[in-house]
Specification:
The protein is α/β, with parallel strands linked by helices. 33% of the residues lie in helices and 22% in strands. The protein has 16 helices and 18 strands. Helix 1 crosses helix 13.
């Protein structure tokens, strides 16, 4: 791995580390390299050999255009004073203490890796999964390669009404001829090709006005060639508060959602082989099972209740019903995980911070910052991370400018690469990643697909090792 010599810079540069190579990490790196307030060198770390975070491992395979943002990230990575350290995990390969010894500032952009649970009986039964697992599985994410899903169930139930829930529903509904042309994992394609799922239920605890999916996602459901979308006849009989909100306060996305849902409701049955049911105002009470496996789900009807702050909440009624199913996905939000020795707010699942500067016991950490989901929580789309990252970068630059300390590069602190080599860590550089990307792209082109992803870390490293020698 060829690396620039950090000892020959004049004037000395501030050494900055960004941990997490997803959108927030890349946007932050881009801002740091673009600014001209202070000279910087930026190292970007990721626990996987592959960069791009959820753009690679979370964006649905039939949404290839969204992945074009990687071209922007590649331009950022091509700049001087940037290095990528893939296959390096914070806490395993490098500690907080070591990072602070080797860098003038550290920015954590690790995202939200885990998911929120429903907290109901039966959630641990076989056949009950997080949407995160399913999304990772069909996207060839190494963490989920070994997952298995019961696609023999004729009914699937998805709890949640956000874009991820709609992604899961769409993938379960898709025509296989179209999925074959994407970068979906081979094992997911084969499993979906023999799937017996015919009815997909997407369940939201509140009403259609409060649904979190975007119009783009909703519109796609209307154009699934083998699937018809069904709503209850009274689904759009809005309560007074929702009507008022829609007329006076709702944004264009909410208004468009209602318009699209109205179109779905008015579309006559077409006799398609699959049905996608959007069910509002219902919450799961219990996942039912037998012999350790899911057999159904018990749900409770809700009514909308206006909260003191004016927002609409869901209030349970005494009306319950059941759906038979062997496959349940929860998609009720992501959650950050604590990093070793780094401050963490267990309630919010984020790193406590003030405009991106990390707080420890209520005090500002002079050298540590956060951006992205681990800073603000799991909200927004890919582009939402840019203004978030800019805020954190501005705070970092202001703090460094106000600091009385000299850049570490001016002293005798060795390069982090030396430390990693001494530990025997196998570092994947950005040029190494490009070797892997080229391999995946060529393998995909041979099958008429954008790429064919390598699905395990060891296989990724083997490909890189082999192609380094070519």
């Amino acid at each position: 791995m060829t690396q620039p010599d950090l000892s020959c810079s004049n004037p000395p540069h501030w050494r900055l580390a960004v941990i997490g190579a997803g959108p927030a990490g890349f946007y932050a790196v881009g801002e740091l390299l673009k600014q001209q307030e202070i000279p910087v060198k930026v190292d970007l770390f990721d626990r996987l050999p592959t960069p791009y975070g959820l753009v690679r491992g979370g964006v649905a395979p039939d949404h290839q255009k969204i992945k074009n943002v990687c071209k922007i990230f590649d331009r950022i990575a091509s700049q001087d004073h940037f290095r990528f350290f893939g296959n390096i995990e914070f806490g395993r390969d490098l500690t907080r203490k070591e990072m602070l010894e080797h860098y003038d500032a550290v920015l954590y952009t690790v995202g939200s890796r885990s998911d929120r649970r429903l907290g109901i009986p039966g959630e641990g039964l076989e056949g009950s999964h997080s949407a995160t697992e399913f999304v990772g599985w069909y996207n060839s994410h190494p963490d989920y390669r070994e997952k298995r899903f019961n696609l023999n169930s004729e009914q699937a139930v998805i709890i949640g009404m956000g874009n991820v829930a709609i992604d899961v529903a769409r993938i379960l509904s898709h025509r296989m001829e179209e999925l074959r042309q994407t970068d979906i994992s081979d094992q997911a394609f084969l499993a979906l090709d023999s799937s017996r799922v015919r009815d997909i239920w997407v369940i939201g605890r509140r009403g259609p006005v409060q649904a979190a999916f975007t119009p783009v996602e909703a519109r796609e459901l209307m154009h699934l060639p083998d699937t018809e979308v069904e709503l209850e006849a009274d689904a759009l009989n809005l309560d007074a508060s929702s009507k008022k909100f829609l007329q006076e306060e709702a944004g264009k996305d909410t208004r468009k959602n209602i318009e699209l849902l109205q179109g779905m409701l008015e579309t006559p049955p077409r006799g398609m082989k699959k049905r996608l049911h959007l069910l509002f105002l219902a919450s799961p009470v219990e996942i039912l099972g037998k012999d350790g496996r899911v057999t159904g789900i018990k749900l409770r009807r809700n009514r909308l209740l206006e909260k003191p702050d004016g927002s609409m909440g869901a209030e349970a009624t005494d009306q319950t019903f059941e759906l038979q199913t062997g496959l349940i996905f929860r998609s009720v939000g992501y959650r950050g995980e604590p990093l070793p020795d780094v401050p963490f707010d267990d309630t919010s699942g984020t790193i406590p911070n003030e405009a991106g500067q990390i707080l420890e016991n209520g005090k500002r950490c002079p050298k540590e910052f956060a951006a992205g989901w681990i800073k603000r929580g799991p909200s927004g789309v890919v582009g939402t991370n840019k203004p978030d990252a800019i805020e954190s970068v501005n705070r970092m630059l202001a703090t460094l400018n106000a600091s009385e300390s000299e850049p570490l590069e001016k002293g005798e602190v060795p390069d982090i690469l030396k430390l990693l080599q001494n530990k025997g860590a196998e570092v994947v550089s950005f040029s190494d990643w490009k070797l892997l990307e080229d391999y995946e792209t060529k393998a995909g082109e041979a099958e008429g697909r954008p790429r064919k992803k390598v699905g395990t870390v060891e296989e990724m490293l083997e490909v890189i090792r082999d192609r380094r020698q070519d």
